[in-house]
Each structure stands twice: as C-alpha cells, then as structure tokens.
Specification:
Neuraminidase, 2 domains, four-stranded antiparallel β-sheet, mainly beta, hydrolase activity, 426 residues, 8% helix, globular, 28 strands
Length: 426
Amino acid sequence: MNYFYTFTGTLNTYRWNTTGITILSSSQVAFVAGIFFDSNDTMYVADETDQVVWKLLKNTTTPIVVTGQLASGGSGASQLNGPQDAYIDSNNNMYVSDLYNERVQKFVNGSTIGVTFAGLNSSSGSALNQLYYPRHLTVDPQQAYMYIVDYGNNRVMRYPTNSTTGTNGTIVAGGAGAGNTNTQLNSPWGIYYLPTISNYLYIVNYGGHSVMQWIPGASSGQFIAGTPGVSGSTATTLNNPIAIQLDSFLNMFVAEFSNNRIQMFCQNNQTGITIVGNGTAGSSATQLYGPRGLAFDSSMNLPFIHGKVSHNERIQLLQNFQRNPKINTIFLSKVGDTSFDLPEANVVIQISSDGGSRRQEAQRLGRILRIKKGYTYKMLTHTQIITNENQLYFSTNEEQRELLEQSPRTPNNDEALPITTKKNFK
C-alpha cells in the first residue's frame, strides 16, 4: 500500500488526530521511499519503483516528475535506480540517494541532468570514496557538509557539499561492522541532524531495532530508544525503525516499518507513545502499511529558545527568525532575565510562573519581551501575576514600566485576552 498521509497534532500536548488525510495515493506514486519538504512547504517524494522524484506544490493534488525517467531505471546522468531520499538546498539544488547505482546524484538548480556527488557510479565498496546502498541523507544548516547513511557498510559518511565523484568522505558514525554495541551500527537507514537543536546525529538502526545519538566523528554513540538487537511492539521496543525526525522541543518521532506505526519519544524518555497507526497493517485512514518516510512541514519546525540553549545558538535562532519570512512563530522558555527584541511582531503571548513577588515577575516580563525602538505593533497579552497597576515599579527603566503599564492585565485564565496597541518608544 503506497499512500501518503498527513496527520495533525496540538503542539506541546501532541493530541494527534489519528485519522490521516490522503495526499497522494497508489494511483499517483508507486513506492514511497522518502519524503522531504523545502522552505516553501513543497513536498518531494522519492519513488523507488517508478525511478523518479515527484514534486508536489503546497495545496495542490497533482505531482510532477522533477528528476529521473518514469518507470525507466538506469545509471545514466538523467536516470535513477531505486531513489531513496531527496534533499533540496537553498539554491534549489537537489540531492538524491540512488540506491542501486551506489551513488548520490546532484541536480543543479532544477536541471534534470545529474552529476555524481558522492560514490562511484554502479560500483559498491567500503573505500572512503564508495557507498554501498546509500539510504537517507541530510545537510547541515550552513550547507557545508552532507551526511549520508551508508546502509551496506553500516556507517554514516560526511562529504563536503563541493564534492564530486571519487571524492573521499569521512566516517562520522559506525564503520566497525554490523552489530549492536555502542561502537557499531546495524543496517542504519534514517538520519536526523540539526545542530541548532542538538549536536548529535540521530540514527535509526533498521536491523538493530534501535535509535542512537552520535556526536559526528566520535568513536561511539549512545542508545536512546529500543532494545539493541531485539525487536518488539511494546512502548519501549521497536521493530525495523526506518525514518526519524525531531521537533524543536527535542521530541523524537520514529517510523517503524514492521510495527506499522509512528512512535513519539519525549525528550530523555525511552517510552514511546503511538501517535499514528494502530500496529496492524492496513489501508484505512487510521492505519499504516510499512511506513518508509517521515517529514515535517514548516509548522512543525518552529524555533525554540530555552535555558539550555547556548548564547551562540540563541543568536543564530533569533537571526533566522527575524530574516526568514516563512517563520512567524518563536517559543521562549526559562530564559531568565535575557532580553529579546521582537521587531514587527503581530502577537506576543506573555506567560510567567507564580514564583516570587509580583514586582519580580513584572521585571522579568519587561526584560524578556520588549518593543524594539521605532516599531508599533499590537500585543496580545495575558499576565496572570500582575493585577494591580500600583505594584508596577521600575526605578531605572522607564521603557520597561511603560511596556507593562500599557499592557492589559487579566486576573485569571478564563477571561478573554484583550488586544491593545503599543506606543513607539523614544
């Protein structure tokens, strides 16, 4: 069964709607091996049987072929043979893992003629310039390196993004043969890497029924889900995990091929919650049949700054939030007295704990959320702690006092959240 479903959930609580919506059916795609969303929420589907990559624009229903020759696999520059995954960079270059050609192809800015980026065409092996059944791939945020799951060699390879055929890669995880120790990978398949969220590579061991986190280049990793080498269908076991994603809260999502489900693991928790599928293979809207791919659109990749995020990472996340028009929401949690300018914001929701005095809470809110000079915007504010304007006192910062004095205050969570227009600060 080759259906593509979309499931929606409520952020933070993850009360997922377990009834899926069919986006593409088996009459449109033959065998979905991997999926990818670009920054415009355009979806790309690697179709292993049809030997192509499909492109589906947001809010449309008819996919188009963007690379490969439909139902005609081969090793030519315009052909694919068992495409597994696709990645599109910010310059509209497409990278495709080409399983049976033992290579990763690069298609420059919409071209249908590929050049071999990594591996040697139709030549499998374990040398540093060879691949053996490349599966999923990803690129770091700076687009300096690509990380490729080298399934047949039980390793993850890293290549500079200016690589060409024959370029040596670097082993950054595994490479010590197939196994279930913390120095080995076992038929690795899916991968996730986003340093702004975590410094680890997240790798699923299809044959090892486990998930590992691994610092790139380290001699060993750490098992974080599943029982290494043991398959199962309980909340703490996995059966052929095949794809993985993380959200900005470090919740982990794992697609299981043989359990026909998607499990969510909250941060630092090895007990999974089934959010999609019921464990039985099927084609109904509540079932999955051997899921292969897993991807989030932009609504599930919102920036999140919390107390453990380093200073440099905060700067990077804030700059991306301010510069990227596709990102319109940011989450802040446990950031203490750090100040954040929010230029041209439409809505700001202030939530503070009830610890400490009202004056301390007012000061904390005033420091965390402040208007950038020269901007006027509407602020949706709910401040439960501060209920009496006489309690607001800032002897050294007029702007902080004005910010809070102009904000409406509601004494409890049940009251409507009013809207007010803020003034420009001088």
